[in-house]
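Researcher: Go.
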Amino acid sequence: MGRHRRRGCGEPRLRATPRRGEAHRRSGARRTRGGALRLAFWRKAQPEEKERVATAAAPVASGFVGALRRISEGAETWKPLEEALLLADVGPATSAAIVATARDASGGSARDRLERTLIELLREADGAPSADDAAIILLVGANGAGKTTTAAKLAARAKRAGASPLLVAADTFRAAAIDQLRLLAEREGVPIIEGRAGGDPSAAIHDALTAAAARDLTPVIVDTAGRMQTKVGLMEELAKIRRVISKVAPDAATEVLLVLDATLGQNGLAQARGFDRAAGIDGVVLTKLDAGARGGAALGLRRELGLPIRWIAAGERAEDLLPFDAAAFVAGLLGETVTRSAGE
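Model: Structure:
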């Protein structure tokens, strides 16, 4: 068991898929018309939040702990770990790559090698990509994923950090969504620009960006209509929204976040691919981690699509939106506290 095998040429390698155009989007993306919002700490998980991130990943910990125990007791293969990964909603390709990388790594116990492997895969998902935050945050996703409540939670967190956010109700297909965001904005004391029910969402976004520039409001957080990745017309509308943003605020740093229901597991990967093609996803908000989700989708999103996890949601309160922290998340997967994790 203690021997490290050479990886065969046919074995999978654990490497996050490069993001096409990522460098292009990031270069110049730190320039904003009103000056960059230098409040990156609003995205950084505080110690108590790291504990909650670990707790969100904990439902699958028993599977990992049991698998590692079997390996340490002399199991001939790492098959128990691969089975645990599959049960945690990690896809077959990513599961095989994780096992191969951890098995062939040098130094430490099986548990330590797995921890290092998972953190290395997820590390780039931590927080903001640089010290400057996006001036425009565009939330996209399917119906029921939690975009509207996520928009309000982001605005509340930004406001607590000292920013002056603006909410945009651009889900013009559902009057109820506009009403819901209005109520949430009023509760948080955040200004809002509302689209007209049945109208063009791009018009609402145009008005919001103009107002934000005049009133020095940032970040601008846009709630868009829910749509399925298979609906070509609706996905083209997202592309149009991106073009409007580029035209009205060409120098603004824009971040497109896919709000994804974590209970979908591997089905979420298909959603992510479709939205990425249409809108160019910069990161993911994983929601409903308090509703029986198994969390492994985060690993597949990172390896197979190159998408970093920016936030996770584990409840309905504004405080339940947590900045993603790789070391804390992995600690939870392995049934440990954050102080035991390699990232501390």
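Model: The first strand starts at residue 136 and ends at 140.
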